[in-house]
Amino acid sequence: MTQASAPADGKWGGPAARRLRLTARLLPYLYAAVAVVAVWWAVVLIAKPHMSLLPSPLLTAQTFVQLMASGELPRDAAYSVCRVLAAWSLAALAAVPLGFAMGRWQRLERVLDPVVELFRPISPLAWIPLAILWFGIDEGGKIFVIFIGTFFPILLNTVAGAKNIDPVFIRAGRVLGCADDTSLFRKVVLPAALPQVIVGLRIAFGTGWAAIIAAELVAARSGLGYLISNGMEVLRSDFVLVGMVTIGVLGVLFDAIFRWVDRRYNWMSE
Amino acid sequence: MTGPGPNAAKPNAAKPLSLRGLAKRYETADGRTIEALSPVDLEISPGEFLVVVGPSGCGKSTLLNILAGLTPPSAGEAWVGDIQVKGPDIDRGMVFQDYALFPWLDAVGNVEFGLERKRIPRHARREIAMRYLEMVGLADFAEKRPRELSGGMKQRVAIARTFATEPSIIFMDEPFGALDALTRSHLQHQLLRIWQQHRKTVVFITHSVVEAIYLADRIVLMTARPGRIKSALKVELAHPRDPTSDDFRSIERRVYADLDEELAKSFRMEDCGSNSPPTKI
Question: Are the Cβ atoms of A175 and B102 closer than 8 angstroms?
Answer without folding.
Answer: no
